[in-house]
Amino acid sequence: MIIDSHCHLDNSQYYDDIDEVIIRALENGIKGFLIPGADLNDLPRAQKLAEKYDEVFFSAGVHPYDIEQYDRKVLEEYISHPKCIAVGECGLDYFRLPEDEIEKKQNIELQKEVFIDQIEFAKKVNKPLIVHIREASNDSRIILEEYDAKEVGGVLHCFNASEHLLPLAKHNFYFGIGGVLTFKNARKLVEILPKIPLDKLILETDCPYLTPHPHRGKRNEPYYTNFVAEKVSELLEIPLEEVQKLTVDNTIKLFKQFSKII
Fold it and tell me: Which residues of 191-222 are buried (b: 16+ CB within 10 A; e: fewer)?
C-alpha cells in the first residue's frame, strides 16, 4: 500500500484517460493521491477530482514559475474545502531566471514575497506546506526558519538533494522522494537518502513529469510510485513492505485526512 503525495492529476496530459489512470493505480496498491495546487487555473479540476474519488485530495497554492498570477483571495476560495488539505506547491526555483540582472533580481524578490505570503497563509489556516525547492536551498531554508514554517510543517518537493536542507527534518518537514531516485545520474539523491530520517520519508511521482526507470520517456502516473518504493527498499536495504508502511504512516502524520481512507 502506497500514497502518492505529489501527483498533478489535474494536468492536461490526463484529460482523456484520468479515470483509467486512477483505477490502474488503485489496482496496483496506490491507495491515496494528493494533487498539489501549482496553477490557479487548474484548481477547479483538482477539486472536481477530489470530490469524485474518496482517495484523492488536493492543495491550493502557486508554483514559483507562476508567481505572476498569485492571488491569495483565490486560494482562500478553495482552502476551506474539506478535501483541500495543504498549501502549495509553493517555494523558490532559481533554475530558470531571466538573464538580465535587474529582471533576475526582481524575479527572485517576487518569488520570495509570494513564498512568504503562502507560508503565512498556511499558518493562518493551519495546514501543512508543499514546498518546491530548486537551486535555491539556502534562501528556502532561511525563509522557512525565519517565518516559523515549523508551526505547520510540510514536505520538501524537488529539493535538489541538498544536505543543507536536512536540518528541516527537526522542524516538522518531510522529504518527498520520487522517480529521480531511479535515474542513472541521481548520485546526489542516492547519497543523501540514507541521511534522511526514516520517519521523515514520503513517496511521490510528480506525474506526469520525472517518470522513473524503466519507463523514462513515457508519461508518468501514480502507479509508478511502486518503482520508487522498490528503489528506496534496495538502497536502504530494508524490506519493501517496511518502506510502504513507514511512508504511508509518515504521510498520514503530515496529511491527517488520509487516515480516513487507509
Answer: ebbeebeeebbbbbbbbbbbbbeeeeeeebbb
